[in-house]
Write a structure and sequence with these properties.
alpha/beta, single chain, 18 helices, six-stranded mixed beta sheet, 49% helix
């Protein structure tokens, strides 16, 4: 048993109101449970109650035991002077106000249905299940589940946009500069993402803007900053980049990173950091006004066209600066572009439109419902539980459900958890 459960029971009046009374046998009618307070102070504010024949308006405090009032030192806190009802699971002490009158106390335990208690214990106290409600998940009606998935998706989008907001504050609201940083991080994928973000942050975006029109200069800037131009490699293209970087380094007073931050270990050649940097260069060299075009684009076809790149001849026959390989185009794959749309484009567009008060939620939903579901261990496990994931909208919602509700056992805040609890 925990207080969160008692908050849930009180908030949604999940108890019998028949013959409801205080510990002093005063009749009790609940007209309004009050506003759930998430900050310091009493748990519910502005509740409306009728005790015997007197109507009261004030606050409600909830504890597992009555004695917790003194344990938490509420008697010393003026915020609790307007408490009109103390709701507890177990009454183990008399609680008095400053005027020496006992606070009206409701013991919830006798009024809570046993089925609700059993469902609660089954849901939140089980430690064996992958998610608490896995035995009940397939029985949730589609209307409840689909509505909840939409809420989950936008919660995930809001959190991602909050992370973008932090970058924008550092970059003085420069959306183009933040786009460059986000793209760099996502080109690095999970393994090299942090290193790529560090690389992007190591160069002021004004420098990036100056050199990005020239593929050779831009390549020299990024490969040089990444520490990949420190080797003794006798190849004309490598030597050209090396010479160009010496010039840029001196001109802009640059400090290169160490290339040991970037991992090649157990990676497919197409994901080598050298290839991903070269692709990033190709994209930003091709699209001079990439941010504007991203904001203007509203269909999946638009984005696939926007991220269609051509690699220079050198990278078509190399995966690194040393070894020659079989020729391949090394264009961005459709699945990689999908990841960029999911993790960079949609969150950034959402943040931009939100800052201008122009959010059209349906636009993001339409795009993500066209993209195939992501494939990972979380989505595979949901599939085993007979929860399908057809699109990126589904997979994003399910990832949010697992990581920020199920893993944290926030069942009492989850539409699915509430549905399971309410079943008798």
């Amino acid at each position: 048993m925990n207080e969160d459960f008692l908050h849930y029971v009180w908030k949604y009046k999940m108890f019998s109101s028949v013959k409801l009374c205080t510990v002093n046998n005063e009749t009790l009618s609940i007209l309004k449970t009050g506003l759930h307070n998430q900050n310091a102070g009493p748990d519910f504010l502005n509740a409306h109650l009728k005790i015997d024949d007197q109507t009261w308006i004030g606050n409600v405090e909830i504890h597992l035991k009555s004695s917790d009032w003194y344990l938490h030192n509420h008697e010393l806190d003026r915020n609790y002077e307007a408490v009109i009802l103390h709701v507890v699971w177990e009454n183990d002490a008399l609680i008095y106000m400053k005027n020496n009158k006992a606070i009206p106390t409701l013991v919830l335990k006798p009024f809570v249905d046993k089925d609700l208690l059993n469902n609660y214990r089954s849901l939140l106290l089980s430690r064996k299940n992958w998610i608490p409600c896995e035995k009940n998940l397939s029985q949730i009606d589609l209307f409840t589940f689909n509505n909840w998935k939409e809420r989950l998706f936008f919660e995930r989008l809001e959190r991602k946009s909050s992370e973008i907001k932090i970058l924008l504050e550092v970059e003085q609201n420069n959306f183009e500069g933040v786009l460059f940083q986000l793209l760099a991080k996502n080109f690095g994928l999970k393994i090299n993402g942090d290193a790529f973000l560090t690389l992007a942050k190591s160069v002021d975006y004004s420098i990036v803007k100056k050199v990005s029109a020239n593929s050779t200069q831009f390549s020299a800037l990024l490969f040089g900053q990444a520490g990949f131009l420190e080797e003794d490699i006798q190849h004309n293209y490598y030597l050209l980049l090396k010479e160009e970087y010496v010039f840029l380094k001196h001109k802009f007073n640059l400090k290169p990173l160490s290339n040991n931050q970037f991992s090649f270990f157990r990676m497919r050649p197409n994901n080598f950091p050298t290839i991903r940097i070269a692709q990033l260069v190709a994209l930003l060299t091709k699209e001079k006004n990439l941010f504007s075009k991203i904001i203007e684009s509203n269909t999946l076809a638009d984005f696939y066209d926007l991220f269609k790149i051509e690699m220079i001849d050198f990278w078509q026959t190399h995966y690194n600066f040393e070894s020659i390989s079989k020729k391949s185009s090394k264009r961005l794959t459709k699945s990689f572009i999908d990841l960029l749309i999911i993790n960079t484009i949609i969150p950034l567009k959402f943040m931009y439109h939100k800052s201008r008060g122009e959010v059209n939620e349906e636009t993001y939903l339409e795009i993500l419902r066209e993209i195939k579901s992501e494939k990972n261990s979380v989505i595979s496990k949901f599939t085993e539980l007979k929860v399908s994931s057809e699109s990126a909208f589904d997979s994003q919602a399910l990832l949010e459900l697992k990581n920020n509700y199920c893993a944290l056992k926030r069942c009492l805040e989850c539409a699915i958890g509430k549905n399971v609890l309410s079943k008798s």
